[in-house]
Amino acid sequence: MMRSVQFAIVVISVAAGLAQAQERLLDQRTSEYNEILVSETADGLRVLRFEPGGARQTVVKPGDPEHLELPYARAIPVGLALVERPQRVLVVGLGGGTIPSLFRKHLPDLQIDAVELDPEVVRVAKQYFGFREDAAMRAYVQDGRKFIEQRKNLYDVIFLDAFSADNIPYALSTREFLVSVRAALKPRGLVVGNIWSRSSNWMYDSMVRTYLDVFDDVYIVDVQGAGNKLVLGLTWNARLDRQQASERAFALSRRLGLRYDLGRLVAYGFRPPGDDGANGRVLRDGDQEDEPEGTSRTSPGALPAADPPASP
User: From CA 72, how far away is CA 75, in angstroms rounded?
Assistant: First the structure.
């Protein structure tokens, strides 16, 4: 297992470096939290990274919020498909603003809060990636955990998409944090967490185990064409199967006029956790362990074809 993780990280790093070498650098700035790089590909796509040669955190086509280059971004609206008439959502981790901008385009009455720790990331999202605040969509510069703990609203769906250059901050993975997330959800609300699979995330099983400890019902969506997993934590026991979930996702695609069939993506990857999490432990505040020697963590903004394979 250790060798497979190391091999996956090497392949990812080489692919990311080659990809960035073919891009034109538009901006590079150092913030308190990140080394922020914005580049542009030959075909006009804007790319956000948090370290030189690092994973692509955001990829957009300027002026076209419906262009979703990263596979996980196409799958993440599944959260909206499983909630009846969502009115307010929270996105933790702004990046270039792809997810909230997509929701704003297709759901003009939806109230969207986005929280981002790094003020420079918010500035870059507005300057280079077309992110725009308005009366229905607000960006807050604050620690995502503190924002949720001090929340003023309840949400239908919370999307956890916050990453450094390495991985999800441990403080956004613990039982105590997920209990706060659950408390911030409406009675039939859910959380969608974007994480790497175990082939490149040594804490994968413990992350899933922690969701299972907090939420009434948990599902996994294996993201087609990437090493991402979406973990869905529900505040009620929905007893969903793959067909039911894909039908709801297909209906959402039709209703919103998406360019792609979300139902097909859900039919590919939606499943109960099965053995995922069986070998993990419940993550708790103050319990953080060091990574096993020789491993590395990589941010789950999907990469080119060298993404680690999805592993159940």
Answer: 5
The CATH number of whichever domain residue 84 belongs to comes to: 3.40.50.150
pTM: 0.87
Contact partners, residue 246, CB within 8 Å, separation at least 6: 263, 264, 266, 267, 270
Q: Are 230 and 72 contacting, i.e. CB atoms less than 8 angstroms apart?
A: yes
Residue 152's domain spans which residues?
A: 62-271
Residue 204 maps to a domain? yes
Is 201 inside any structural domain?
Answer: yes
Tell me how far CA of residue 297 lies from CA of 108, 118, 206, 294, in angstroms.
Answer: 37, 20, 15, 10
Domain membership flag for residue 56 = no
Q: How far are the Cα atoms of 65, 68, 73, 100, 197 from residue 104, in angstroms, in the given order?
A: 9, 14, 14, 6, 29
Helix (H) or strand (E) holding 179, with range, is: helix 175-183
First vs last Cα of the chain: how many Å apart? 13
Structural domain count of the chain:
1
CA distances (Å), origin 24, targets 5, 40, 51 = 30, 5, 15
What one-character DSSP code corresponds to residue 252? H
**Tens digits of per-residue pLDDT, 115-160?**
999 999 999 999 999 999 999 999 999 999 999 999 989 999 999 9
> Residue 156 is inside which H or E element, if any?
strand 155-160
Domain assignment present for 8: no
How far is residue 205's CA from residue 193's CA, in Å, rounded to a whole number?
A: 14
